[in-house]
Amino acid sequence: MSFIYYTQSKLVFGVGSQNQLEALLRENAATSILLVYSGDYVFDLGIHDVINQAARNIGGESDREWRRCAKPAYRPGSESD
What are the phi and psi torsion angles at 14 (to 5°)? Predict the structure, then answer.
C-alpha cells in the first residue's frame, strides 16, 4: 500500500482559546463548521454555544440549520475486516 496524507492544521490550546474561534474562522474564510462530538459535554461546558455564536458572527449557519445525525448503534460482529 502506498499513499500520501497531508493535512495543514493549527492547534489552539489553553485557557480562553475558544475566544479565538471567530478570528480563526475568518482567517480561513470558513463557510461551514463540522462539530463532531459524543455525549452532552459540548452543551454542559458551553462549547456548542461558543461555536454557534462564532458561526452567527461570521454570517454562517446557526445550529437551527445544522444537520443532526443520530448516534450510530454498535452491533457486535459488524466490524469491517
Answer: 130, 170
Euclidean distance between CA atoms 16 and 44, whole angstroms:
17
* Each residue's pLDDT tens digit, 11-68: 899 999 989 999 999 998 887 788 888 888 888 999 889 988 998 888 876 555 555 5
Residue 74: all three cell numbers together? 454498535
Query: How far from 54 is each of 1, 35, 63, CA to CA, in Å?
Result: 41, 13, 11
* Residues contacting residue 46 through CB under 8 Å, at least 6 positions apart: none
- Is residue 29 within a helix (H) or strand (E), and if so which, with residue range? none
Cβ–Cβ under 8 Å, residues 51 and 32: no
Q: Which amino acid is at 32?
A: S
